User: What shape does this take?
Amino acid sequence: MDIIEKIKEKANIVDIASNYTKLKKSGRRFVGLCPFHSERTPSFTVDPEKGLYHCFGCGAGGDIFTLVMEKEGFDFPSAIEFLAKKYDIVVPKKAYSTKKIEEEIIEINQSAQSFFRDYLSGREGEIARKYIESRGINREWVETFGIGYSPHQWDTLYKYLKEKGFSENLISLSGLCVKTERGFIDRFRGRIMFPIRNISGRIIGFGGRTIFDENPKYLNSPETPVYKKRMGLFGIDLAKEEIKDKGFVILVEGYMDQISLFMNGFKNTVASLGTSLTEEQVSLLKKFTDKIYLFYDPDNAGVSSVIRAIPIILSQEISLKIVWIQQGFDPDTFVRERGRAGVDEALSKALSPVEFLVKVYNINGSISPEERAKRIKIILNIINGIKDPILIRTYVKELSYLARIEEEFLLKMLKRREIRENLPPSESVTPAEKRLIYAIINGKELSKEIVLALRSLDLSELGQRDLVEGLMEIIEEKGEVNPSYIKEKFSSEKQRIIYKILLDEGGEISIEEIRDCVRAIKRLILERKHRKLQEEIKKEEKTGNKERLRELLLLKQKITQDIITLI
Assistant: This one.
């Protein structure tokens, strides 16, 4: 039993919580005034059986570790030491200093980079070189970005690193190789490799793009002592000076988007590496500029990412513009086809956050009054997430003008609680998703089976895709989910969702329930695809594009059959 489990077994969350608020027993749980915000009616609940707490007022939630971390201002190791001392539990001493491990991982990353570059220039890298050339990346740019190739064999990199004298423990910690029952295998087999660097240019991780028909298409390093996905920005080392000179940054999602824009003269471009934008990434950019141009894909996933990013960016008092390009393009293909002039034009026509929201929610389109009211509330909820009251007033005024609704009426709605209950679709959690999230966290040895099953699915239609994929990554990298990993991986809002689910859900997880759960998720994904397809069919019926309409109808028929098989 590790130190975390020992503390959970011995510690009493009711005793700890009672240090911060007076609790009263209510059935199986305890209730009291929330220690995280001022209130008159108790909304703070503690469940001693699950070892969890949750406030139904402010949304704060977690377990005994997060409670101590939040109230005492501790980091996770300090919280462990505090609780271990309180309950007379011996904490094992670390074998290595954190600083030493970080330096060794950067060293092993540098060795791996040399390995990848050698393979790209060798005989086995021919297919990769042709792909790179097809994307307009010449040898000079390959050198600039340090692009390489990881061979398709199972353990070529592992053997190379062992020959270089690196230990198995360090190889595992670096995330370059994965330990299995049969030994170590290379994580990035058959992929074009892009080194991820920190501000000072040191390699902290890698991104890999498959050149074979394999999923996932893009794969990044797991969390390591030096690579934190919430903090990493691809290209920041090359772009930082240009960002300061230009006075703004172009923020894209993928490394190919960043590379293409950079090669075409937009050297103030960085990428968030395909993950949802985080507060930490925005804070890093704020060191160099107070203006962001968000340039994401115009598809459904890209739009959802922009909607999630808006309050995160605006909460840090940064000016935001959203670059909108037509469907069928992404930033990479757009700049390669339209060139610098096309991107300059797109930047000049970039939308304000409210203009973007009014456009994507089709506020002035042919929708019912009920649907329009619902979408207006969603936009107001996003505006309500901004901290600056002056900026809120500015955006309400803009929404009033664009949506043709009186400003005072919108301000009254903003003050009413009802808009806070109309979260964007991406923030809602279905029963199937709740059970899935609970199962991943509490499935113990079955958690890996769940993750394995989910890897074969297209999760882009899940409302909580980022949360589910984040938990999957934790299981793959760490083997289990604990409070430290949750706090490290997710924003405070996502943490609240997780702990609310853990408090609401319960029971043992069986293999039969896992199968039912994955089946329900498959059906949920297909039903959402079916609804979107139906909307697209309606649009094509108006345009008269018979060939495209035929394709959509055939696809709809297939999805319908797939749904039937899951009933």
